[in-house]
Design brief:
With 148 residues, this protein is an alpha/beta fold. It is built from five helices and seven strands; from the N terminus they run βαβββαβαβααβ. Strands 5-2-1-6-7 form a five-stranded parallel β-sheet, sandwiched between helices.
């Protein structure tokens, strides 16, 4: 079995992000692995100079990127050895691409546990990452994961 030296953890910066990072950090510590936490911002398409109110789509996208950086920084304050990365693009493509670029040996991803019509319409990011990743992927349910 190949040693696990690089772990990638995609996060959505929602309510359970802290649990997912803590879980992954514990695993990284056990394996003496480097932990990479990545958040993907899907940018809204820019339409030239078309304005919505007083904000252009470009400035709106820039603001979303800056806010994401701030949020991720706050989540990672307790993990100084962790690498935090904000990227933009198609979520699943960017997660799998980033994991491949850092030669990840494992991806740890949370799931929202959507069912029925919501899953049919939106799909599952975790499921698509599992199908497209070059390395093993561990899916955790942060809604069931005990804190601390």
């Amino acid at each position: 079995m190949k040693d696990i030296t690089q772990i990638v953890v995609p996060v959505d910066l929602a309510e359970h992000t802290e649990k997912i990072i803590a879980y992954a950090a514990a695993g990284a510590e056990k394996f003496s692995a480097k932990l990479h936490v990545v958040h993907v911002v899907e940018l809204l398409p820019t339409l030239g100079e078309l304005e919505l109110g007083t904000t252009t789509m470009d400035s709106f996208n820039k603001k979303r990127m800056e806010q994401s950086k701030d949020f991720l920084h706050k989540f990672l304050l307790g993990y100084p050895e962790c690498i935090g990365k904000i990227v933009s693009g198609v979520i699943v493509d960017e997660i799998t691409s980033y994991a491949k670029s850092v030669e990840a040996d494992l991806i740890i991803i949370g799931t929202h546990g959507t069912k029925g019509l919501e899953k049919l319409l939106l799909g599952s990011v975790a499921e698509r990452v599992v199908k497209n990743a070059h390395c093993p992927t561990l899916v955790m349910n942060p809604y069931k994961q005990a804190a601390g």
